[in-house]
Amino acid sequence: MSVLVSNRKESKFEAITYSVDLHDMLIELMQRGFGVKDPDQLVRRRYAYGKDSKEDFAKYRYLMQNFKMRIDQTASLLTNNIRAANSIYPTSMQEYEQRRGFQNSAIANCEQLVKELQRVVEIFEVDINTYGRYIKAIDREIGLIKKWRQRDNKIKSYLQGNI
Length: 163
Known about the structure:
The chain is mainly α. The protein is built from five helices and no strands. It has one domain.
């Protein structure tokens, strides 16, 4: 017997699988150059409006590549922290705290991703509305990790009761 999609509960591993999906979404965004239609036109326009003192194409190519690298690394760290937290099943308070630390680091990685995307929007003057789906995806990941931490509070109370 199957369960309707609307009646299904989220898997306990949803945070892990969704972090991989989020990373794939960000890779796709980076492959499209963050939605910047023509980087050379951007540089010319910034120079023409007096925002830059010279047409520095190399600067914006470097910034684009640098943002791609940092976002990819941060998304990888997010997945690594979630997998590390999942690999620990706490049997002591020390293990619980270690797992909690990985979960907190994953949330921090999500916030770093948001900050990086905000910087891309500021520097490359991209329409912020195109980034809504990515911000929602990052917020969902944060929510999934927080739910996971709440479920872990049961383990914490059990461990504290056994001390």
